[in-house]
Amino acid sequence: MLTRSTIIPVAILVAALVGPACDSPAQSPAAPTQSPDATTPAPTVSSTPPPPELVGVWQVMVRLTDVTTLENGAACIAETMRSQADTPIQYSLSITDTGRVTMANASGDYSCSFSPVMDGSGFTTYGKGGYYDCTGEPQVFRCGDGATHTLISFGQDISGRVSGAEITGTWEIFWYSRADPVSGVDVRTQFTGTR
């Protein structure tokens, strides 16, 4: 994993978080595991190459749909993220002809790449395992009360479906505090976009 620590605006982190990790606080993330060495490309899980209509770059708007606090120590993180729920955040979603999916924020300081399972109209990592790697982690997150937390993603999942010229999907990230690993938030987002 490539790392870079910067204090980021709440909206950018929410966008980075606008994506999910697990179904409930009692479960471990069903997300792909982090690639152990970000310099080595993760293997592609998909046995089916993506159809040509998926390949390319999509401009998407990511919206926060839910934040679940997994421990009380993360209450200010969840509360601050929830305050941004109505703020769409611009991302680009790229799909390569080998099936690699990458979400990158507009400023270029945060991106995550996945090796999802592909089918004729989309992709998913939910319940499929695989690998992901991110640039721009850890993230320094400032709560509304001024407290700062260094966050690392512990698991991520992404899925998308193409219908005509539009793509829709979900992105879920489980974030935990580096200083207090039992404190975390499960952040769920939805995205929509076009080429």
Radius of gyration: 15 Å
> Main β-sheet: number of strands, strand sense, barrel status?
13 strands, mixed
How much is the average pLDDT? 79
Shape: elongated
Low-confidence stretches: 1-46
The tally of beta strands, per DSSP, is: 13
Share of helix among residues? Answer: under 10%
Number of helices: 2
Secondary-structure element string: EHEEHEEEEEEEEEE
| Helix-and-strand structural type | mainly beta
Percentage of β-strand residues: over 45%
Count the domains: 1
Distance between the termini: 28 Å
What does this structure look like?
This protein has 195 residues and is mainly beta. The chain has one domain (7-194). The protein has helices at residues 10-17, 75-82, and strands spanning 7-8, 33-34, 56-69, 89-95, 101-105, 111-114, 117-119, 122-124, 131-135, 139-142, 148-163, 166-177, 184-194. Strands 1, 2, 3, 4, 5, 6, 7, 8, 9, 10, 11, 12 and 13 form a 13-stranded mixed sheet that branches. A hairpin with a 5-residue loop joins strand 4 (89-95) and strand 5. The longest helix is centred in the first third of the chain and has 8 residues, at 10-17. Mean pLDDT is 79; it is low at 1-46.
